[in-house]
Amino acid sequence: KDVNVISLYLDCSDDERKRRAQERGSFCEEEWNRRLIDDSNKFNINEIRKQVNYIVDADSTSDVVFNNVKKLFNLK
Known about the structure:
Distance between the termini: 28 Å
Largest sheet: 2 strands, parallel
Helix content: 55-70%
Number of strands: 2
Strand content: 5-15%
Mean pLDDT: 92
Order of helices and strands: EHHHEH
Strand order of the largest sheet: 1-2
Low-confidence stretches: none
């Protein structure tokens, strides 16, 4: 069978990611900094743009992000 795959990348700013991590509790600044460096090495937005069908701004609330994804596929 042929399968049609559509890829999405949820792009979230470092500031928003940090805020969300802090809200989850037991936040460690040292671990955050390690992960930030690791992510910047692994996720190059210019390379990602070449590999995915859509990039979705994920800095909003989960409801807004979900509604934006639904709009991409004309879902109600």
